[in-house]
Design a protein that fits this description.
This protein has 179 residues and is an alpha+beta fold. It has one domain: 3-Layer(aba) Sandwich (Aminopeptidase), CATH 3.40.630.30. It contains 7 helices and 9 strands. The strands form 2 sheets. The chain has a 7-stranded mixed sheet with strand order 2-3-4-5-7-9-8, sandwiched between helices. A hairpin with a 2-residue loop joins strand 8 and strand 9. It starts with a strand and ends with a strand. The model has no long low-confidence stretch (mean pLDDT 94).
Length: 179
Amino acid sequence: MGTYNIVNEFVNEHVKGHQANSEDTEEIMELLIQTARWLQSQGSTQWSGLLEGEDSHNMAGCISHGEVFSFRQDRELVGVVILMQQPSPWDINLWGEGAIACDSAVYLHRLAIKRGFAGQELGRDILQWAAKSIEFKGKDRIRLDCIRNNETLNRFYQRSGYTYIGEAKGFNKYENLLN
């Protein structure tokens, strides 16, 4: 587990970001499952493992390692993201030796927004918050991946300031250099 400092808890004027704790696990998992159901209703198989009880990113473990950030408007959970300061086996598989050689990267996973807050630019706001309002010691970039054939999601990451780095195993890789 690396070190970080939240320099601004506000994601926007209504939503605050905090490090998630074990008491948040059930609520966060429910948000992820709701998101997986919505993705399935849109014809996507992304995150479908969650609907079968599989959690490939081990959300509870990530929470206990301090890698999950929850976003709340008042007390309502409206979003979540994993920010890993060490590459997961998934990241190493996708980024190859670059994941091991570049220890200055934070790996972003499982960005999810509560459906009632979709369309309000909250996803973009959370990505900006991760890049500008939290400092990770020794880190100078955020990396993420998304399924190659989801054009909407790929455009979203590009519009949010992420640079396309390449493709691997059916996924597009993106990076955002931090200031």
